[in-house]
Each structure stands twice: as C-alpha cells, then as structure tokens.
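Input (o-succinylbenzoate synthase):
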Amino acid sequence: MSYKQSLLFEFRAYQRPFRQTLNTRYGAWTHREGIILKVTDGQGRIGFGEVAPLPWFGSETQAQALAFCTQVPQRLSLCSELAILSTLPACTFGFEVALGNLTRDIHCADLKTDRYSALLPTGQAALSAWSGLWAIGHRTFKWKIGVAPVAVELAWLSQLMERLPLGAKLRLDANGGLDELAAHHWLDHCDRLSHRIEFIEQPLPPDSFKELLKLSHRYSTPIALDESVTTLDQLKTHYFRGWRGIYVIKAAIMGSPSRLKQFCRDHPIDIVISSVFETDIGRQALIDLAVELQSLLPNAPRRVLGLGTQQWLPNDGLDDPDWEALWQRLT
Ligand SMILES: [Mg+2]
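Output:
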C-alpha cells in the first residue's frame, strides 16, 4: 500500500455491548470490539476506516490489531510503504478503506431495507422475532442452526415457514456445526420447501470440502461456504478446486478489498457480502464494495446483503453516518 503525501494517522478503539448476547456455535458473544482509523492529508482531507476483527474466524485479535496500530507512526512519511502482514487481514481492510476514503467523496447510497437480510435470534425465539423485522421492510431472514437437536430445530423450521409470509426468504447458517447425517436431514427438508430456503450456509466444517461438494451436487437447495473461505487465498483455493456454489464474503476480515475485486473481475463467482457487526464506517465500505462487485459480476445472482445486524447493537452513536461525530464519541 503506498501513498504520495504526508498523512496524520490517528486511531481510537471502541467497545459495544450487544443488546442481547449473540449465541453462536463458538459460544456467547457479548461485546463487539474494534478500532476506528483516521487519516488526514496536507489539504485537510479526512479518510476514516475501521478494523473489526473476528479471531474465531481466523483474523487477528483486537489486542494484535491495537499493537499494530500503536506502532504505525503518527506521521506517515511521503511515498512510504505501509507493510501489513497477511496475518492482520482486518487491519489491511481498515487501512485500505481509510486511505481510499481520503479521496472518495461520494459513497453509494444506503440501500432499501429489503436489500439486507435480517439476523433472527437463535432457536425458538426466531418464531416471533421475524414479524417486527418484516414490518420495517426486511424480506430475507437469517437463522443460526445446529444449536439444538436436529428434530427439534426442524420442527421449529416448519413452524417458522408456516408463519412467514410467502414473499419471505430464509437463509440457514450452521456455522460448520452439522455432521453428515444431520446435513442430509436438513437439505432433504429444505428441498421440500420449494425454494423458500435461499441457501444453507456452511453445513459441515471447513475441512469437509469433498463432502460439501457432494452435498451441493445432490440437493437443489444451494450451499454457501463461509468458514471455509475466510481469507482470499482460501476463497481462491476453493474456486480452483471446483466450488461453484455461493461464497459468503466477510469483507472486513478478508484483507484487501482491491485484491478481492481483482479476483472477482477474472473469476465470476456467486457471492453474499456479509457483516461482522461493523460501525457505520465499515458498513458503508461493505455497501460500496457490494455495489462495485455487482458491476464486476453482471451475471451473478443479485443476493441481498448480510448486513441486517444493527438491531443487535446499542444506540451509542457508532452507527452515525456523520463520521466526525462518530469519532468524537470515542474521545
Ligand atoms: Mg456464516
């Protein structure tokens, strides 16, 4: 990454408690931690970026990201090179976005609510939680599975599908937590729901590539890879090994957005851009990236963005589209 002028670099860490603990297969998640980056050039132009690590998905930890930011000089000298290791993908993303935002005046407008999927609470709570999200315009919902016995969850799914209006679509996310038998049960069940299940995400663990491929050939319900493809190198490997299903892109932990765009330019893939609970700064970067990728992938299915996560976070000012105000909150 290079830049041609002297920049002032600053950063501030944030911590946000989730309104409700997020129960995942990796355990309970209570706080989102991250870092806001700010670069200012000699002409007073400002670029904000965000580092939002997700260590259990293979990114650096918040402590490692903070250690990196602390050793970046406050004055970045003319034409210097900022070397960021590939072991720091969230930092790589944050710095590239911040430097890009220095010269980027216009952001893509926020999309309508129906262009985002909304994350439902895990388990039986989903059966009633969808209606408020439907009322504010969401039409695609995401539900984490693999946290209760298959028979119990399939019964909940049947109830959920009876209650959801016909225009609704459901994404299921197993976070790699099913065994092969359970995956067959789920996919068989989903195939009988006449395409109301948009896809099932990561039914098996990342080391089960051959089994995942077999499942994708056997069932009509599409399968999306997420944990299997947390880095751009993993994404490329899966593409060259023959994965033609969906790729979930958690761009904020995938490293350089420009390298991702370069790959997609040459290799048309079916993607879903997905949030890792960023502030408005990271969120806007994902919207811009999604719009750019859509123009690079004109024939790919138009999948709604996995960004419907704001209802999980507090009203703490970090979703403010006025980024200077957002920054001031962190003093
Ligand atoms: Mg997932």
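The longest helix spans residues 280-296.
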